[in-house]
Amino acid sequence: MTKAWLAELGRLALILLAAAILGGIAGQLVWMLLAGLLFALCFHLYQLYRVHHWILHVEDRGNPPDAMGVWGELVDSLYRFGKRHRKRKERLASLLERFNEFTSAMPDATVVIGPNNEIRWLNEAATDLFGLRNPQDIGQRLSNLIRHPDFISYLAGGDYHEPIEITSPVRDDVRLSLRIVPFGNHERLLAARDISHLYRLEQMRRDFVANVSHELRTPLTVLMGYLETFEDMEDEFPSPLKRSLSHMQGQATRMQGIIEDLLMLSRLDGEGPMASEQSAVAIPGLVSALREDAEALSGTAGHRISAEIDEMLWLRGDAKELHSAFANLVSNAVRYTPMGGEIALRWVRDGAGASFEVRDTGIGIDPEHIPRLTERFYRVNKDRSRDTGGTGLGLAIVKHVLQRHGAKLVIRSRPGEGSAFVCLFPSARVVHKVRESHIA
Ligand code: ADP
């Protein structure tokens, strides 16, 4: 019990004592005691009224009213609490103001989305880059306002690990990189950055490579034509010239390979991010044709080549691209497997998806190189790649084609033991045609 309470109780006891003495003298003990209690009650009611009045007019109140006893202590506590609360409110208001200034100054668009894709908050850049209006669009579904198909499937897909790129819905010249970050209670933050500058640079680089490759193709075709004419007259040339001629032909063919691969890559770059799902490609036929190509490529090297093909599996995608990717893997297996080695092609189901695997018993790859193999012009051994007619672009094409089909490339390899290149396709791309599979 606090001091104020003790004093309060003492005061009540004094009033009652005084009333009892007066009552005793006047011979009206009960009435005087009642009068004393009434006095105490009135006193407390009055104090309560003052405190209540002070609390009701809390906004314009100045100092707290002078109150006695427990009331005084209560008023002091309320006053201190109110003061602390006011200070905290001021601090929060200034923090909020600074936050608003900061988000307005931010060049990146930021939108907070609720569980039903409804907009909860947005900054000024979101108005500029997405055309969203504040406050009119608050509460609207974001998918009704940004209708780009890539964005809609990104938002619905729930896999926000990678950002996506779209053109701004309100400014054709602005390219945006979007990323969604989940946070809090089923909320998500959409952050968009203007990457037009980078995009234009990338476009210039792609156009440059495509143009250079294209421009080189014609003179090279002319040179190769002359080389073929010389080849027909080879018997008339002295031996050193014959050797040079064959060397020149080898180099020209290699150059042609590089140009064709570069053109393929820039074609892939120029297409949309995903290959069309319109037509189903007969992969079983494609794989058996590749097996025959592999035998032809192997020639006298005598590789043992087998193929396990699930005849019921077809794929939705681009036939030309898939052929190019698979052919690159098969030609690598032949080129990096010494004479007499084994090469196995497998086109089979993988869970709900499908996988194309090329396994060889070739030279294998050191683990440190594996993460970089799909980079353009990355080779483990430049000389070996050149000697076998490699361009250094094969696996870059494979990676690109697989990305466009929503597939993944898994590489397993050990130096001296061989390698396995596995392309894993998602179930969404798989088409089931017939039942049987056979091992050839
Ligand atoms: P390249 O035209 O040089 O073969 P790729 O992009 O197809 O270019 O392959 C990149 C590198 O990966 C090759 O230079 C080679 O070192 C390595 N590589 C690819 N496939 C195999 C394989 N089956 N066995 C061993 N190494 C391989």
UniProtKB/TrEMBL annotation:
GO terms for molecular function: ATP binding; phosphoprotein phosphatase activity; phosphorelay sensor kinase activity. Keywords: ATP-binding, Cell membrane, Kinase, Membrane, Nucleotide-binding, Phosphate transport, Phosphoprotein, Transferase, Transmembrane, Transmembrane helix, Transport, Two-component regulatory system. It is found in: Cell membrane. GO terms for biological process: cellular response to phosphate starvation; phosphate ion transport; regulation of DNA-templated transcription. Residues 88-150 form the PAS domain. Member of the two-component regulatory system PhoR/PhoB involved in the phosphate regulon genes expression. PhoR may function as a membrane-associated protein kinase that phosphorylates PhoB in response to environmental signals. PANTHER family: PHOSPHATE REGULON SENSOR PROTEIN PHOR (PTHR45453). This is Phosphate regulon sensor protein PhoR. It comes from Acidihalobacter yilgarnensis. The lineage of its organism: Bacteria, Pseudomonadati, Pseudomonadota, Gammaproteobacteria, Chromatiales.
